[in-house]
Amino acid sequence: MFDRLAIAFATLAAASLPLTGAQAQSTEPVFYPGTNEGLFLIVTDFHFDPFSDPTLVPELDKSPVSGWTEIFKGAAESIKSYGNDATYSLMVSALDAAATQGMTYDYVLYTGDYLSHHFNDTYQKTAGDNPQGVTSFAIKTTQYVSQLLGDTFGDIPVYGVLGNEDSACGDYQLAPDSAFLEGVGEQWAKLSRQPGGFQAFKHDGFYKVTHPTVPDQDIIALSNVYWAKHYSDACNTNGGDPGKDVMTWLDEQLAETQQAGRKAQLLMHVPPGADARDTARHADKETCEASIHLFWQEHYLTDFLELMYKYAGTVDYTFSGHTHMDGFTVINDASGEPLIANQITASVSPVFGNNPAFAVFLYDKTSGAVKDSATFYLTNLEAAAAGAKPDWQLEYDYRSTYAVPDLSAASRASLAKTLQNDEPLRQRFSNLYAVQSATPEIDPVYWQAYGCALDATSPDAYKACLCSSN
């Protein structure tokens, strides 16, 4: 595979991923795809921390990516517990576990955040004498994670999007037409197996490819960090409005897809709708309306929803990450009927207290419909951080847990309504949301902040749901 993916500064050693994790042996598959069925994997939000052993950073900084694995293997680097991003050891353990579940994936999705939190500041503190520069190190780190994804799962496409941490400038500071975008674009194009779809990637970080197995379907990957409420264009020397540029490009791509009689799936990092965590944290505001926080700037959310209404029937599924939790949102049409299911996949990074996780999805190869999913998680993070063998296990499968026929927008909307009144199921959802964390993300006192976010994506709908219940 490396012959096909060779990049002078990004080629890895052939033995880059030794199967040393707990799941190095094959296990009984959760899914047995039938005729016209397939599987895809979402593993995401590593927030890979190359600084976990700061003594390695000067050597990593000066080494090509091809030498990084040997540097990590020769060190005493290990898994770290809650409150930390993914170390090399945790990243490899997660990839090993995903690769050895006895299932064959058709493709892999990575919905953003390759780089660790506080990446730039930590680099400046640990790079040592004569540093090569944070831009070079951010590019190499992103390339390293991307290449491990490509190497682990064999000859299948990998589709990624950039997260808010994925920038040589800083958190929420991705710059258009930057050296960072140019530095990862060529590699990502080759990992996608469709380099022709990446002509515009170096400008704003988006691309469009045909679905690898579903006829008449496209995958549109968005750099939607530009839409986020926290986005700062401090490093955008060209001026303009990159968020508007992405929205305009998306409109053009959806028009092209619709006119061709095709459908599209959207990949993004930051999910649409309300930021339930921030809303719950601000519940002490004087008014309910003042407590509401959105993930995106409101005008971008409004524009995006208008596009989804305009191209109703063209998009059935979107995939995102960012929250580090295991959740979903439903985009309803203008009349309030379920239109699009947005999958939010839990992170490998345990920095926010969740257990590391990844998910496998069963889908229909003729329509792209997502039929079921299974989430796997690291059951013994604290023990693994103390030196025990990592133990990855099946956490749950979606259909049997929630008694839904599939993962469509209609099924997700039905589940959202059931959760409002079924307290035992709501508790189960809350436990799974933070991947069995000992410190649950959802406080029952603030359930409505989370429950309303599931199927009230527009600002007005969320306000009506949350504030009428308070």
How would you characterize the overall build of this protein?
The protein is of the alpha/beta class and 470 residues long. The chain has one domain (35-469): Purple Acid Phosphatase, chain A, domain 2 (4-Layer Sandwich), CATH 3.60.21. Helix content is 36%, strand content 15%. The chain contains 18 helices and twelve strands. The chain has helices at residues 2-5, 57-62, 68-73, 88-99, 119-126, 134-152, 179-192, 201-204, 242-259, 276-281, 288-291, 298-310, 381-385, 398-402, 409-421, 423-433, 447-455, 459-469; strands at 37-42, 107-110, 158-160, 207-210, 217-221, 263-267, 315-320, 327-332, 338-344, 357-364, 370-378, 392-397. The strands form two sheets. A six-stranded mixed sheet has the order 3-2-1-10-11-12. Keywords: Glycoprotein, Hydrolase, Secreted, Signal. Its main location: secreted. Residues 1-24 form the signal peptide.
What is the N-to-C succession of helices and strands? Answer: HEHHHEHHEHHEEHEHHHEEEEEHEHHHHH
- What is the total tally of β strands? 12
**CATH topology value:** Purple Acid Phosphatase, chain A, domain 2
CATH architecture: 4-Layer Sandwich
What share of residues are in beta strands?
Answer: 5-15%
Mean pLDDT across residues: 93
Low-confidence stretches: 1-26
Just give the CATH class.
Answer: Alpha Beta
What sort of overall outline do the alpha carbons produce when their principal axes are compared?
globular
As a percent range, the share of helical residues equals 25-40%
The CATH homologous superfamily name equals Metallo-dependent phosphatases
**Helix count from the secondary structure assignment:** 18
Radius of gyration: 21 Å
Given helix and strand content, the structural type is alpha/beta
Largest sheet: 6 strands, mixed
Q: What order do the strands of the largest sheet run in, or round the barrel if closed?
A: 3-2-1-10-11-12
User: End-to-end distance, in Å?
Assistant: 56 Å
Overall number of structural domains: 1
GO molecular function, one term: hydrolase activity
InterPro entries: ASM_C, Calcineurin-like_PHP, Metallo-depent_PP-like
Main location: secreted
Subcellular location: Secreted
